[in-house]
Amino acid sequence: MGDDVQTLPFGSWPSPIDAALAAAHDGHPEWVGLVGDEAWWTEPRPTEGGRRTLVRRHADGSEESVLPAPWNVRSRVIEYGGQPWAGVVQDGRPLVVFVNFADQRLYRYEPGGDPRPLTPVSPVGGGLRWADPVLLLDRGEVWCVLEEFTGDGPTDVRRVLAAVPLDGSAAQDRDAVRELTEARHRFVTGPRISPDGRHVAWLGWDHPRMPWDGTELVLAQVREDGTLQAARTVAGGPDESIAQVDWAHDGALLYASDRTGWWNLYRDGQPLCPREEEFGGPLWKLGQRWFAPLESGLIAVVHGRGATALGILDPESAEVVDAAGPWTEFAPTLAVLGERVVAVGASPRSDHEVVELDTRTGRARVIGARHDDSVDPAYYPEPQIRTFTGPAGREIHAHIYPPHHPGCVAPGDQLPPYVVWAHGGPTSRAPLVLDLSIAYFTSRGIGVAEVNYGGSTGHGREYRNRLREQWGVVDVEDCAAVALALADEGTADRDRLAIRGGSAGGWTAAASLTATDVYACGTIVYPILDLAGWGEGETHDFESQYLETLVGPLAEVPARYAERSPTEHADRITAPFLLLQGLDDVICPPAQCERFLARMEGRRVPHAYLAFEGEGHGFRRADTMIRSLEAELSLYAQVFVLNPPGIPTLELSK
User: Fold this and answer.
1) CA-to-CA distance for 307 and 432, rounded, in angstroms?
2) Residue range 613-625: average pLDDT?
3) pLDDT of 40 over the 90 cut
4) By C-alpha distance, which of 479, 439, 492 is closest to 640?
5) Least C-beta-crowded within 10 Å: which of 62, 274, 354, 580?
6) Does the pLDDT of residue 79 top 80, yes or no?
7) Integer Cα distance of 421 and 438 in angstroms
8) How far is it, in rounded angstroms, from Cα 569 to Cα 294?
């Protein structure tokens, strides 16, 4: 490191990674597709109100944002959304359909013209919403998922497959939308049409199950007139999660099922590559793709145990050859054409990038959203993949990011403060990728521990099921076990441990402050705080019965809902905390925070509540993210007695 290394206390190291830089790199390219032979994808614009634009990569390699502000390509189906666009080439020109976030209408767009609406606006409840579209030019239609509100309540909703005319005749006429299915299932994914056009497949599931608990694979015949008949379930069930379905080019039905305890691939019901690793994942958004069949019969796969790789599966030999390159994580989005595979990959040294793999040569290269080091990579954290031992000897997977700075060290007698990060979901996981929000802390001398607690995905169904009826117990215990292990081994300062999380992670953070004395403070972001309220109509339809498996049947164990809720035990909180909330959040509504704060009234625990207008579930605006990060750092500075330079002081009330 040379002679110019400074010795400064942890938390006071000067860093070029400020909150604005971290905010500018929040979010990543998503929903890749091929329009003709051009790669297109969606990409966030935090400085443009957090909208998502549609990016086109031209033949010469240049990238174009094809839709100016305020167009925002994002679906609200099941609130988390899904594939929001589709495109083909017609008469030598791109023809694209997309969902616009503001009004949730489906639009038709051709370069050189303005987007034209294809669907009407509904005044009922949350309106008409669309996702996972498929363009059928021969029929002059878009087939997709229709989510239709039937009343003003969040669960007054039905979902079917529907056909929208491409000529715009349904733009003002709901009756011109042709429904393809009855509301047989509460939830459905978009249609996958067989190569000969005679069959269509999709996934369906019902309350109280979530898609990673149990789904059904439904197959129907397509009549000459475009109507469906003889729909029947051909795979799946209450305890078998099918994450994705598609068709091989020879007409075989492909799907990813966890019937063995791991999401593996099947062809017409026969296993293709039985392994104790995942070839699928939790279906939080409709249209996620972990596999894509190639014309050659090979299958592009996003697979792995913990982290994910991009590979090519040969169904004949059951061998998988992974793409060479620096990427350690691939998102569940794939597009294929001929021998080309387009994906989105990232690593601990690079943001998510659009990657193209040539399956003939095995060569992979970045073709879009190329990572550009906005600061010297010497300031990036250097993560460690660790496995810890929790209660009853159970394994806990985590990523540890020690403090790291090329020009600073701490006095030899000091141990660093650490913040435990609890991911959302909770049926999700923390990927091992470059996150400048983590670097914001580690480059200042504050360690971060991302815990993939029991219930996280990537490690099989048994690991995932650890959280069944144990939410608020196993997640809290696992995070505490990692924090205390870091202190016991001399990695972290026992007196300077914090916890933070958003959404379900916000729940874990709040529950940790009420149930343990491990942490000196916490940051709670758009959380669930009151289980009974959340489970009785305060949240959206998709997760409205999620607690039936996470906590237990409300009708049978109502006391458990109260016993685990941080709102019910606000009197146990003695550690300072920061509460961050979007005022437009329909998943974890502000009412939860307001009830919690009312219970804290007069308790004289230092805290701050920052509520942001125009923000929903997951902050998307640069100014919101900047304010949140700086406030979080200021909380740690005050509680841990740190001196980070240039950070506005967060006012803590008592």
Assistant:
1) 7
2) 92
3) yes
4) 492
5) 62
6) yes
7) 10
8) 54
Residue keyed to tokens 């439904």: 218
- Residue 70: cis peptide before it, omega within 30 degrees of 0: yes
Tokens of 261: 């305890």
Query: Tokens 């051009």 appear where?
Result: 38
211 cis-preceded (ω within 30 degrees of 0) = no
Confidence of residue 27 (pLDDT cuts 50, 70, 90): confident
Smallest CA-to-CA distance from 436 within 625, 167, 631, 648 is with 625
Residue indicated by tokens 């129907």: 220
Residue carrying the six token digits 């109260």: 562
Which residues lie across from 188 on neighbouring strands?
204
Instruction: Report the alpha-carbon distance of residue 354 to residue 32 in Å, rounded.
Output: 8
The answer, yes or no, to whether residue 92 has pLDDT greater than 80, is yes
Encode 613-644: b = buried (16+ Cβ within 10 Å), e = exposed. eebbbbbbbbbbbbbbbbbbbbbbbbbbebeb
Whole-angstrom distance, CA of residue 515 vs CA of residue 522: 13
- Kindly give the pairing relationship between strand 329-330 and strand 335-337: unpaired
Q: Is the pLDDT of residue 1 over 50?
A: no
Non-local CB neighbours of 343 within 8 Å, separated by 6+ positions: 32, 300, 302, 310, 330, 331, 333, 334, 335, 354, 355, 356, 357
Alpha-carbon dihedral 17, 21, 22, 27, rounded to 10 degrees: -150
pLDDT greater than 70 at residue 142: yes
Helix (H, G, I), strand (E, B) or coil at 459: coil
- For 532, the 3-state DSSP assignment is helix
CA–CA dist 254, 235 (Å, integer): 11
Residue tagged 């805290």 (tokens)? 607
Region label for 168, one of left (φ > 0), alpha (ψ between -120 and 50) or beta (otherwise): left
CB-count burial class (<10 Å; 0-12, 13-18, 19+) for 496: buried
Closest CA to 374 of 47, 13, 18, 629: 18
Q: Which of 4, 7, 2, 45 is nearest to 622 (CA)?
A: 45
Q: Which amino acid is at 482?
A: V
* Beta-strand relationship, 199-205 and 350-358: unpaired
Kindly report, residue by residue over 446-483, the tens digit of the pLDDT. 999 999 999 999 999 999 999 999 999 999 999 999 99
Beta bridge partners of 134: 143
Burial zone of 482 (CB within 10 Å; 0-12 exposed, 13-18 middle, 19+ buried): buried
Q: How far is CA 98 from CA 101, 194, 605, in A?
A: 10, 23, 48
- Most distant CA atoms of the chain, gap in Å: 78
pLDDT at position 583:
94
Q: What is the mean pLDDT of residues 428-457?
A: 97
* DSSP 8-class letter at 568: G
Mean pLDDT in residue range 521-544 = 88
DSSP-assigned states of every residue in 229-280: EEEEEEEEBTTB-EEEEEE-TTS-EEEEE-TTSS-EEEETTEESS--SSBS-
Q: In a 10 Å sphere around its CB, with 0-12 CB exposed, 13-18 middle and 19+ buried, how is residue 160 labelled? A: middle
- Report angle CA 244, 154, 44 to the nearest 5 degrees: 55
* Residue 643 three-state SS: coil
pLDDT at 548: 95
